[in-house]
Specification:
mainly alpha, 7 helices, globular
Length: 142
């Protein structure tokens, strides 16, 4: 798994760019904010930083509650939050598969599959935090 994580750490910007160009541009959140000066660059930088933090701490996925609260404040729908979140992890896995099949990701199939399972676990943990933050923030507003 360390080869996969090392590869992703080195190529985190490319992976985030892949997610943005493949999935995020289709989201409601993006459609509402795409013309706001500096928004996309700030969102891209935030996504890269969060991905790096998650890779450094695979068992905790930091900041997901705060991101949920932030998305509530941004008036992003809960459905769009879940969609963006799951598409992010899908994009990461696709990115790894693309590079594995091209031969630019040097790892065993077992390492790749182990990493994918770990990312799916991270996805579940962080999704719980996102939803908790979003719902808690909404409860305080009402």
């Amino acid at each position: 798994m360390s080869n996969v994580l090392g590869f992703l750490n080195i190529h985190v910007e490319e992976a985030v760019n892949y997610w943005i160009s493949t999935y995020y541009v289709e989201s409601e959140e993006y459609q509402k904010r795409k013309y706001i000066p500096g928004y996309m660059e700030a969102h891209r930088n935030e996504s890269i930083l969060l991905c790096k933090h998650a890779l450094a701490n695979l068992d905790a996925v930091p900041n997901s509650v705060e991101i949920g609260e932030d998305r509530f404040d941004m008036e992003t729908s809960l459905a769009d939050i879940v969609s963006n979140h799951t598409s992010f992890y899908t994009a990461i896995i696709e990115f790894l598969f693309i590079h594995y099949l091209k031969g630019s990701l040097d790892c065993t199939r077992e390492d790749l599959f182990e990493s994918i399972l770990k990312f799916r676990e991270m996805e579940g943990i962080s999704l719980q935090g996102l939803i908790s933050g979003y719902v808690a923030k909404g409860a305080h507003v009402n």
